[in-house]
Structure formats: C-alpha cells, structure tokens
C-alpha cells in the first residue's frame, strides 16, 4: 500500500506519494529533504505521533495509520536559510489589518443575511471548554497568525516563530481577562501550534477555549470581494525589535479598570496608552 502525505512548511504545501507502509519516518524525512532542502536532523514533524509521543525515525509509516493526503506541519530550516531567518521578514501585502476595513463592511456584517449565517454558526458550532470562564472577567480573543506566531517564515522550532513577550503578555492579560485563541485554520493546526509554543499547559495562565475556521463566516463586499472577519492583525514578527505585545499588555491593563468598553476605539490603542502614560 502506498502512503500519501502533504507537508506544510514555510507557507507552501509539498505532496509526497512515493512511499509505502514499509518505509520509515526517516524515509519520509529523506523525501522531505529532496523537496525542501531541509536536512532530516533539522526537521520537526508536528502531529506525527505514536501513542501520544512524536514518532521516532525507525517507526514504519504503516503503523501510523495515516489517512490518504494527511497534512503534516513541519518545523525546519535549510542550512543556508539560518541566517535569513534571523533577518526581519519582508513586508507582505496580503495581510489585511481589520481596522483598515471600511465602515461599509462593518454595516454589511450586521445585514440580515450575515446575521442568519452567524446564528447558524452559534447553533452548530460546539465550543470545547478547556478551562471554565471566571466570574467578572472580560473575554480577550487573540488571532494566531501574525499576532502570536509568524506562520510563513521557516524556522527550526516554534520558539523562533513565537512573537516576543508572548508568555509575559498572556500572563499579564490573564489577570484581568479570560483568553480565547482564534484562527482561520483548522483546530488541528491551532492545537499543534499552541502546544509547540508552550501555551496550552502554561502554569502562569489558562486558555478558556479555542476557535477554528468552522466558527467563522465570510462577508462579501463590493470593494473588497470576500473579507474574512478576523481579530486584530498588527505586524509581522521581528524577533529583534518587536515590542508590540509588551505595549499591548499595558493597554489591556489600563482599560481593564474601565466599567464600559463601548467608548473605546481600539484602533487608537497606542494613542490611548500614550495619553495615560503622560498623565
């Protein structure tokens, strides 16, 4: 029996269908090396497990009981890319900042058709609570890609793709807010990323629940076509200089004192913070 898998790495997908059930995880890694240039010893395959533990190199693929075209996320860097990984990532035009979306889009979200879509999602989507909500805490919903984690760059470990101050930010926010992780990908990837980053079982804060693409709706607008309703995306990661989460933690701490958030415009959060700090 042949084994077919799809490797997700660096924002690309690589299809491998030349292996059999008798081949091993190391044979798979060699095939990945041929396609990506990443050496086997630099590859970390997320979600490839035997009895809850990462599959060792000598394990036969047949024993993993993989469905055809199973997607496997890889961490890993080509030797020649290690220097590039440390450089600031290039600007990417395909990232939409939700706060740049016109008012007209916001109005359309509240149209009857979309309210019906939202009602269907609310009815059908099952939230799996990881930790119970706490009395009196507001809810903070955080997007994964480009907010907590740079999912396009190539790196050897999730730590290299983790946004600076992530754990300090979540620890601080947890004092005042229940935290929800949200992403427009599948729950499998969200789960893998959060485990890789050490978010899921962190002793200093708890995640209330996670939401995947099944909880989202799309909104059609004349100007932009389809716009996915996502939480705030601010910037690509810049491992050396990025202090966004450090500053955002201070903003969340400031507004936590308020009884009512309706008067806030989160688009101007830096301005709000700067005013408070100068008083």
UniProtKB/TrEMBL annotation:
User: Is-annotated flag, keyword Magnesium?
Assistant: yes
User: Which top EC class is given?
Assistant: hydrolase
Keywords (A to Z) from UniProt? Hydrolase, Magnesium, Metal-binding, Nucleus, Protein phosphatase
Which stretches make up the Ubiquitin-like domain?
A: 3-81
Listed under catalytic activity are:
O-phospho-L-threonyl-[protein] + H2O = L-threonyl-[protein] + phosphate; O-phospho-L-seryl-[protein] + H2O = L-seryl-[protein] + phosphate
Q: Does the keyword RNA-binding apply?
A: no
Q: Give a Gene Ontology cellular component term annotated to this protein.
A: nucleus
Could you state a single Gene Ontology molecular function term? metal ion binding
- Where in or outside the cell is it found? Nucleus
Q: Name one GO biological process term.
A: regulation of proteasome assembly
Classify the main location: nucleus
SMART domains the UniProt entry points to:
CPDc, UBQ
Enzyme Commission number(s): 3.1.3.16
- Necessary cofactors: Mg(2+)
- Describe the location of the FCP1 homology domain by residue ranges: 133-279
What is the protein's name according to its record? Ubiquitin-like domain-containing CTD phosphatase 1
What is the organism of origin for this protein?
Answer: Seriola lalandi dorsalis
């Amino acid at each position: 029996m042949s084994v077919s898998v799809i490797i997700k790495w660096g924002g690309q997908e690589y299809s491998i269908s030349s292996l059999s059930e008798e081949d091993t995880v190391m044979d798979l890694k060699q095939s990945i090396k041929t396609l990506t240039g990443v050496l086997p010893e630099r590859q970390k395959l997320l979600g490839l497990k035997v009895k809850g533990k990462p599959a060792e190199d000598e394990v036969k693929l047949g024993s993993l009981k993989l469905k055809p075209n199973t997607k496997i996320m890889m961490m890993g860097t080509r030797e020649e890319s290690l220097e590039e990984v440390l450089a600031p990532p290039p600007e990417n035009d395909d990232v939409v900042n939700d706060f740049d979306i016109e008012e007209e889009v916001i109005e359309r979200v509240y149209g009857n058709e979309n309210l019906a879509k939202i009602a269907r999602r609310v009815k059908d989507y099952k939230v799996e609570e990881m930790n119970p909500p706490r009395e009196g805490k507001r809810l903070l919903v955080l997007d994964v890609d480009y907010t907590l984690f740079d999912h396009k760059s190539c790196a050897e470990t999730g730590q290299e793709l983790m946004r600076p101050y992530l754990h300090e930010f979540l620890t601080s926010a947890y004092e005042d807010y229940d935290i929800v992780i949200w992403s427009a990908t599948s729950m499998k990837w969200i789960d893998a990323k959060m485990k890789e980053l050490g978010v899921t079982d962190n002793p200093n804060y708890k995640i209330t629940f996670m939401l995947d693409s099944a909880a989202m709706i799309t909104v059609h607008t004349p100007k932009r076509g389809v716009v996915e309703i996502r939480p705030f995306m601010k910037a690509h990661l810049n491992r050396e200089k990025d202090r966004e989460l450090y500053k955002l933690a201070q903003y969340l701490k400031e507004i936590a004192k308020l009884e009512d958030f309706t008067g806030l415009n989160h688009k101007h959060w830096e301005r709000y913070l700067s005013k408070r700090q100068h008083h």
